[in-house]
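Annex B, item 7. Sequence and structure tokens for protein A, then protein B.
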Amino acid sequence: MVSRIRRRFSSFAYFARKTYWKMATAKPSLTILGFAVVGLSIFLLGGGVYDLIVPFVPIGFPLGRRVLFFYPRTIHEQAFLGSLLVMTVYGIGVAGFLLTYQSTKYAYRSRQAFTLLSIGLVLVFIAYLLIEYVLWLKMLSPL
């Protein structure tokens, strides 16, 4: 009985040492690491920390058969769906920049390079216009 317990604890120490060594010497994929960094930056720039800290602000309240909508009074207030919209638009902009970067890899296939470059620039331009439109709507909101 004692030898069985001793053997289990010794194998547990070996297992823990082996697991620690695998974690300490792990090399994560640069692509996965890059996507994680870009996702984290989009989350931070889009107001994700604000959404986690401040209580949820509903967009509308049902009043019988009508719905009373909530509009932020100042540019500093934020609704949850607004921050999700901004994060999505930032993602569209990052996708556009990635497509323009990928277009440089096809320098000898001019048609494919031009297609990727034009689609990427259109996505970046659309993202810019949408962010400006959202800011314009927030600045015109009633006080």
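Protein B:
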Amino acid sequence: MIRSLWSGATGMSAQQLNIDVIANNLANVNTNGFKRSRADFQDLMYQTIRAPGATTATGATTPTGVQVGMGVRPIAIQKLFTQGEYTQTGNQLDLAIEGKGFFKVLRGTEELYTRSGAYKLDKDGYVVDSEGNRLQPEFAVPANTVSIAVDSGGRMVALGSDGTELGAVQLQLYTFTNPAGLFSKGKNYFIPTPASGDPTTGTPGVDGVGTTAQGFLEMSNVNVVEEMVAMIIAHRAYEANSKTIQTSDQLLQMANNVKR
């Protein structure tokens, strides 16, 4: 009974974390380029009363053993980099990635990677994100530019009033062997870790790298219905674990009252 108290407590803690992850997913349902997270769990150690395959007094081998589990613990919160839906904005500096890859921006000397493609121009004409960090490679749009065109291969061109090309840059996308191993910095930014591997530079549309879509933004990949169902399941699991604690407490109370 004491064992069940602690097992139930670990279950409640695990489901609380699960709810926290789901809540963050739902909070970012309208965040451009956001990737939903999933909590992964594993069972704890077991108390082995009799090991499977043990030899009995008669020399027979037991087909099963007696092992009692000690509960559950969270082992990972994994980012799921599935493609989000697209929304058409018509803004010439809004860019979406169709397929694999990340944009790179520079914050001071720190290189940051993102799927959010809502870019603007700063006072010097550079293409920057909402935090003022410059898109890499840097591109300063000439002052007399009338429009900006970006093709699916990532070539960004500044055009004059007569269609003359005033400047251009070849955008690059960056891929990782294990994007789930990236470290989330918040504000839609990621940085590499030993788990993600180093970034590989690629040209959009070449060697499996995604392409760029101008005038579109990638929305969050959170599915509200799935998250709501997961929240219901987590709530019921939390409730069931609380019931095991209540039941164990009642059994202990009955044992304490045996002599009464």
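Comment on protein B: Residues 97 and 191 are 18 Å apart (CA to CA).
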